[in-house]
Amino acid sequence: MSAEGSTKAIVAAMSANAGIALTKFIAFLLSGATSMLAEAVHSVADTANQVLLLIGKRRAKREADEEHPFGYGRSRYVYAFIVAIILFSLGGLFALYEGIEKIAHPHPLDPAWWWLPFAVLLVAIVLESFSLRTAIRESNAVRGGRGWVQFVRRAKSPELPVVLLEDIAALAGLVFALIGVGLTQLTGNGVWDGIGTIAIGKLLVVVAIILGIEMGSLLVGEGANRDDVARIRAAIARHPAIDRVIHLKTLYIGPEELMVGAKVAVSGRTSLAELAPEIDAVERDIREAVPAARIIYLEPDIWRPDPGRDPEPPTDTIILQSEN
Q: Rounded distance, CA 175 to CA 267, Å?
Protein backbone atom coordinates (compact mmCIF):
# COMPACT_ATOMS: atom_id res chain seq x y z
CA MET A 1 0.00 0.00 0.00
CA SER A 2 1.29 3.42 -0.86
CA ALA A 3 2.27 5.30 2.31
CA GLU A 4 1.68 8.56 0.48
CA GLY A 5 -1.81 7.44 -0.52
CA SER A 6 -2.89 6.51 2.98
CA THR A 7 -1.41 9.73 4.41
CA LYS A 8 -3.24 11.78 1.80
CA ALA A 9 -6.55 10.13 2.74
CA ILE A 10 -5.91 10.71 6.46
CA VAL A 11 -5.03 14.40 6.00
CA ALA A 12 -8.07 14.97 3.77
CA ALA A 13 -10.39 13.38 6.35
CA MET A 14 -8.77 15.24 9.26
CA SER A 15 -9.05 18.62 7.55
CA ALA A 16 -12.71 18.07 6.69
CA ASN A 17 -13.66 16.79 10.14
CA ALA A 18 -11.93 19.60 12.04
CA GLY A 19 -13.83 22.28 10.13
CA ILE A 20 -17.10 20.36 10.26
CA ALA A 21 -16.85 19.82 14.03
CA LEU A 22 -16.58 23.55 14.70
CA THR A 23 -19.58 24.45 12.56
CA LYS A 24 -21.68 21.66 14.10
CA PHE A 25 -20.96 22.90 17.63
CA ILE A 26 -22.00 26.40 16.62
CA ALA A 27 -25.18 25.03 15.03
CA PHE A 28 -26.00 23.06 18.20
CA LEU A 29 -25.48 26.06 20.48
CA LEU A 30 -27.72 28.27 18.37
CA SER A 31 -30.46 25.77 17.43
CA GLY A 32 -30.51 23.30 20.32
CA ALA A 33 -30.59 20.25 18.01
CA THR A 34 -29.09 17.29 19.90
CA SER A 35 -28.40 15.46 16.66
CA MET A 36 -26.06 18.35 15.83
CA LEU A 37 -24.29 17.83 19.16
CA ALA A 38 -23.94 14.10 18.47
CA GLU A 39 -22.57 14.87 15.02
CA ALA A 40 -20.19 17.49 16.44
CA VAL A 41 -18.78 15.02 18.95
CA HIS A 42 -18.57 12.43 16.15
CA SER A 43 -16.51 14.85 14.06
CA VAL A 44 -14.24 15.64 17.02
CA ALA A 45 -13.72 11.90 17.55
CA ASP A 46 -12.95 11.42 13.86
CA THR A 47 -10.45 14.29 13.90
CA ALA A 48 -8.71 12.80 16.94
CA ASN A 49 -8.73 9.42 15.23
CA GLN A 50 -6.95 10.75 12.18
CA VAL A 51 -4.33 12.38 14.41
CA LEU A 52 -3.80 8.99 16.09
CA LEU A 53 -3.40 7.27 12.71
CA LEU A 54 -0.71 9.78 11.73
CA ILE A 55 1.06 9.25 15.07
CA GLY A 56 0.91 5.49 14.55
CA LYS A 57 2.46 5.80 11.09
CA ARG A 58 5.24 7.97 12.45
CA ARG A 59 6.03 5.69 15.41
CA ALA A 60 6.06 2.64 13.12
CA LYS A 61 9.00 4.12 11.20
CA ARG A 62 11.36 3.86 14.17
CA GLU A 63 14.35 1.60 13.66
CA ALA A 64 14.49 -1.81 15.30
CA ASP A 65 16.40 -1.92 18.58
CA GLU A 66 17.44 -4.45 21.19
CA GLU A 67 14.06 -4.34 22.94
CA HIS A 68 12.09 -4.52 19.69
CA PRO A 69 14.28 -6.52 17.30
CA PHE A 70 11.55 -6.76 14.66
CA GLY A 71 10.86 -3.03 14.70
CA TYR A 72 7.77 -1.02 15.52
CA GLY A 73 5.57 -1.77 12.53
CA ARG A 74 2.68 -2.99 14.68
CA SER A 75 2.36 0.47 16.24
CA ARG A 76 0.00 1.22 13.38
CA TYR A 77 -2.28 -1.61 14.50
CA VAL A 78 -2.20 -0.40 18.11
CA TYR A 79 -3.25 3.13 17.19
CA ALA A 80 -5.90 1.90 14.77
CA PHE A 81 -7.36 -0.24 17.58
CA ILE A 82 -7.44 2.83 19.83
CA VAL A 83 -9.33 4.60 17.04
CA ALA A 84 -12.01 1.88 17.18
CA ILE A 85 -12.33 2.32 20.96
CA ILE A 86 -12.68 6.10 20.67
CA LEU A 87 -15.27 5.76 17.90
CA PHE A 88 -17.25 3.32 20.07
CA SER A 89 -17.14 5.32 23.30
CA LEU A 90 -16.79 9.00 22.44
CA GLY A 91 -18.82 8.70 19.25
CA GLY A 92 -21.36 5.89 19.52
CA LEU A 93 -22.16 5.71 23.24
CA PHE A 94 -22.30 9.50 23.62
CA ALA A 95 -24.74 9.77 20.72
CA LEU A 96 -26.94 7.02 22.19
CA TYR A 97 -26.98 8.80 25.57
CA GLU A 98 -27.89 12.15 24.01
CA GLY A 99 -30.60 10.57 21.87
CA ILE A 100 -32.23 8.83 24.83
CA GLU A 101 -32.11 12.08 26.81
CA LYS A 102 -33.76 13.99 23.97
CA ILE A 103 -36.55 11.42 23.64
CA ALA A 104 -37.12 11.53 27.41
CA HIS A 105 -37.13 15.35 27.46
CA PRO A 106 -38.02 16.55 23.93
CA HIS A 107 -38.01 20.20 23.01
CA PRO A 108 -38.47 22.02 19.69
CA LEU A 109 -35.64 23.72 17.85
CA ASP A 110 -34.98 27.41 18.32
CA PRO A 111 -37.27 29.02 15.70
CA ALA A 112 -34.84 31.88 15.10
CA TRP A 113 -32.14 29.48 13.94
CA TRP A 114 -34.22 26.70 12.37
CA TRP A 115 -32.31 26.94 9.10
CA LEU A 116 -28.81 26.71 10.55
CA PRO A 117 -28.66 22.92 11.15
CA PHE A 118 -29.80 22.29 7.58
CA ALA A 119 -27.12 24.59 6.16
CA VAL A 120 -24.39 23.06 8.30
CA LEU A 121 -25.44 19.49 7.50
CA LEU A 122 -25.57 20.14 3.77
CA VAL A 123 -22.11 21.75 3.80
CA ALA A 124 -20.82 18.87 5.92
CA ILE A 125 -22.22 16.34 3.44
CA VAL A 126 -20.33 18.06 0.62
CA LEU A 127 -17.05 18.13 2.59
CA GLU A 128 -17.39 14.51 3.75
CA SER A 129 -18.11 13.48 0.17
CA PHE A 130 -14.79 14.98 -0.93
CA SER A 131 -13.02 13.17 1.91
CA LEU A 132 -14.71 9.88 1.00
CA ARG A 133 -13.82 10.35 -2.66
CA THR A 134 -10.16 10.72 -1.69
CA ALA A 135 -10.32 7.57 0.45
CA ILE A 136 -12.00 5.62 -2.36
CA ARG A 137 -9.49 6.81 -4.96
CA GLU A 138 -6.50 5.87 -2.79
CA SER A 139 -8.09 2.53 -1.88
CA ASN A 140 -8.78 1.70 -5.53
CA ALA A 141 -5.08 2.20 -6.24
CA VAL A 142 -4.14 -0.70 -3.94
CA ARG A 143 -7.12 -3.04 -3.55
CA GLY A 144 -6.72 -4.68 -6.97
CA GLY A 145 -9.58 -7.00 -7.89
CA ARG A 146 -10.82 -7.42 -4.31
CA GLY A 147 -14.30 -6.31 -3.37
CA TRP A 148 -14.75 -3.65 -0.72
CA VAL A 149 -15.62 -6.12 2.03
CA GLN A 150 -12.56 -8.22 1.22
CA PHE A 151 -10.41 -5.09 1.09
CA VAL A 152 -11.46 -4.04 4.60
CA ARG A 153 -11.07 -7.58 5.94
CA ARG A 154 -7.76 -8.48 4.29
CA ALA A 155 -5.85 -5.19 4.16
CA LYS A 156 -2.69 -5.30 6.27
CA SER A 157 -2.27 -1.53 6.33
CA PRO A 158 -4.99 -0.22 8.65
CA GLU A 159 -5.22 3.45 7.67
CA LEU A 160 -7.26 3.32 4.47
CA PRO A 161 -9.89 0.85 5.76
CA VAL A 162 -10.27 2.94 8.93
CA VAL A 163 -10.66 6.23 7.05
CA LEU A 164 -12.96 4.60 4.50
CA LEU A 165 -15.34 3.23 7.16
CA GLU A 166 -15.21 6.46 9.16
CA ASP A 167 -16.14 8.53 6.11
CA ILE A 168 -19.00 6.19 5.19
CA ALA A 169 -20.28 6.33 8.77
CA ALA A 170 -19.94 10.11 8.80
CA LEU A 171 -21.97 10.52 5.60
CA ALA A 172 -24.67 8.14 6.80
CA GLY A 173 -24.75 9.93 10.16
CA LEU A 174 -25.22 13.28 8.44
CA VAL A 175 -28.18 11.88 6.53
CA PHE A 176 -29.70 10.56 9.78
CA ALA A 177 -29.19 13.96 11.41
CA LEU A 178 -30.74 15.74 8.44
CA ILE A 179 -33.82 13.50 8.58
CA GLY A 180 -34.14 13.89 12.36
CA VAL A 181 -33.83 17.68 12.28
CA GLY A 182 -36.15 17.91 9.28
CA LEU A 183 -38.92 15.86 10.91
CA THR A 184 -38.52 17.83 14.15
CA GLN A 185 -38.93 21.07 12.23
CA LEU A 186 -41.95 19.79 10.29
CA THR A 187 -43.80 18.28 13.25
CA GLY A 188 -42.58 20.46 16.08
CA ASN A 189 -41.83 17.25 17.99
CA GLY A 190 -38.27 17.03 19.37
CA VAL A 191 -38.53 13.24 19.66
CA TRP A 192 -37.53 12.94 16.00
CA ASP A 193 -34.28 14.74 16.76
CA GLY A 194 -33.61 12.17 19.48
CA ILE A 195 -34.43 9.27 17.15
CA GLY A 196 -31.98 10.63 14.57
CA THR A 197 -29.33 10.92 17.27
CA ILE A 198 -29.88 7.31 18.38
CA ALA A 199 -29.57 6.16 14.76
CA ILE A 200 -26.21 7.95 14.56
CA GLY A 201 -25.08 6.27 17.78
CA LYS A 202 -26.06 2.79 16.60
CA LEU A 203 -24.24 3.31 13.31
CA LEU A 204 -21.04 4.40 15.05
CA VAL A 205 -21.17 1.46 17.46
CA VAL A 206 -21.50 -1.00 14.55
CA VAL A 207 -18.60 0.58 12.64
CA ALA A 208 -16.46 0.65 15.79
CA ILE A 209 -17.13 -3.05 16.44
CA ILE A 210 -16.16 -3.94 12.85
CA LEU A 211 -12.94 -1.92 13.14
CA GLY A 212 -12.20 -3.40 16.56
CA ILE A 213 -12.53 -6.95 15.26
CA GLU A 214 -10.33 -6.32 12.23
CA MET A 215 -7.66 -4.36 14.09
CA GLY A 216 -7.68 -6.91 16.93
CA SER A 217 -7.00 -9.67 14.40
CA LEU A 218 -4.02 -7.74 13.04
CA LEU A 219 -2.71 -7.15 16.56
CA VAL A 220 -2.91 -10.84 17.43
CA GLY A 221 -1.00 -11.60 14.22
CA GLU A 222 -2.11 -12.51 10.71
CA GLY A 223 -0.22 -14.54 8.16
CA ALA A 224 0.10 -14.09 4.43
CA ASN A 225 -2.94 -14.71 2.25
CA ARG A 226 -3.30 -17.90 0.23
CA ASP A 227 -1.96 -16.41 -2.98
CA ASP A 228 1.21 -15.14 -1.30
CA VAL A 229 1.70 -18.46 0.53
CA ALA A 230 1.41 -20.26 -2.82
CA ARG A 231 4.00 -17.90 -4.34
CA ILE A 232 6.38 -18.52 -1.44
CA ARG A 233 6.00 -22.29 -1.72
CA ALA A 234 6.52 -22.15 -5.47
CA ALA A 235 9.65 -20.01 -5.04
CA ILE A 236 11.08 -22.60 -2.64
CA ALA A 237 10.08 -25.60 -4.75
CA ARG A 238 11.83 -24.28 -7.87
CA HIS A 239 15.23 -25.09 -6.39
CA PRO A 240 16.57 -28.60 -7.05
CA ALA A 241 18.40 -28.67 -3.72
CA ILE A 242 15.05 -28.51 -1.89
CA ASP A 243 13.17 -31.80 -1.84
CA ARG A 244 10.00 -30.46 -0.21
CA VAL A 245 8.61 -27.94 2.26
CA ILE A 246 8.09 -29.74 5.56
CA HIS A 247 6.17 -26.84 7.07
CA LEU A 248 5.79 -23.12 6.46
CA LYS A 249 4.60 -20.29 8.70
CA THR A 250 4.20 -16.60 7.94
CA LEU A 251 3.43 -13.58 10.12
CA TYR A 252 2.96 -9.89 9.40
CA ILE A 253 5.07 -7.97 11.91
CA GLY A 254 4.05 -4.72 10.26
CA PRO A 255 1.77 -3.64 7.41
CA GLU A 256 4.54 -3.95 4.82
CA GLU A 257 6.80 -6.48 6.54
CA LEU A 258 6.19 -10.22 6.39
CA MET A 259 8.21 -12.78 8.32
CA VAL A 260 8.60 -16.21 6.71
CA GLY A 261 9.79 -19.29 8.55
CA ALA A 262 10.08 -22.65 6.81
CA LYS A 263 11.59 -26.04 7.46
CA VAL A 264 12.72 -27.52 4.15
CA ALA A 265 13.85 -31.04 3.35
CA VAL A 266 17.23 -31.41 1.60
CA SER A 267 19.23 -34.40 0.53
CA GLY A 268 21.38 -35.95 3.24
CA ARG A 269 24.24 -36.02 0.74
CA THR A 270 24.24 -32.23 0.32
CA SER A 271 27.20 -30.55 2.00
CA LEU A 272 26.93 -27.27 3.89
CA ALA A 273 29.15 -25.57 1.33
CA GLU A 274 26.72 -26.61 -1.43
CA LEU A 275 23.61 -25.78 0.60
CA ALA A 276 24.48 -22.26 1.77
CA PRO A 277 24.33 -20.58 -1.66
CA GLU A 278 21.14 -22.50 -2.45
CA ILE A 279 19.47 -21.16 0.70
CA ASP A 280 20.55 -17.63 -0.25
CA ALA A 281 19.06 -18.12 -3.70
CA VAL A 282 15.79 -19.37 -2.23
CA GLU A 283 15.56 -16.27 -0.03
CA ARG A 284 16.12 -14.02 -3.03
CA ASP A 285 13.39 -15.80 -4.99
CA ILE A 286 10.95 -15.53 -2.07
CA ARG A 287 11.54 -11.79 -1.81
CA GLU A 288 11.09 -11.42 -5.55
CA ALA A 289 7.82 -13.37 -5.45
CA VAL A 290 6.47 -11.56 -2.36
CA PRO A 291 8.27 -8.23 -1.78
CA ALA A 292 6.77 -7.87 1.70
CA ALA A 293 8.74 -10.97 2.81
CA ARG A 294 11.65 -9.09 4.32
CA ILE A 295 12.55 -11.42 7.20
CA ILE A 296 13.13 -15.05 6.17
CA TYR A 297 14.28 -18.00 8.22
CA LEU A 298 14.90 -21.30 6.42
CA GLU A 299 15.80 -24.42 8.38
CA PRO A 300 17.28 -27.30 6.34
CA ASP A 301 16.31 -30.76 7.55
CA ILE A 302 16.05 -34.36 6.38
CA TRP A 303 12.63 -35.67 5.38
CA ARG A 304 11.70 -38.41 7.84
CA PRO A 305 8.08 -39.37 7.21
CA ASP A 306 6.08 -40.89 10.03
CA PRO A 307 4.61 -44.12 8.58
CA GLY A 308 1.46 -43.67 10.59
CA ARG A 309 0.96 -40.00 9.76
CA ASP A 310 2.84 -39.32 6.53
CA PRO A 311 2.56 -42.33 4.22
CA GLU A 312 2.69 -39.95 1.24
CA PRO A 313 4.30 -36.55 0.72
CA PRO A 314 2.09 -33.65 1.86
CA THR A 315 -0.60 -32.53 -0.55
CA ASP A 316 0.89 -29.07 -0.90
CA THR A 317 4.20 -30.65 -1.94
CA ILE A 318 2.50 -32.62 -4.72
CA ILE A 319 0.91 -29.39 -5.97
CA LEU A 320 4.24 -27.61 -5.89
CA GLN A 321 5.98 -30.34 -7.82
CA SER A 322 3.28 -30.28 -10.47
CA GLU A 323 3.97 -26.56 -10.97
CA ASN A 324 7.66 -27.07 -11.71
A: 67
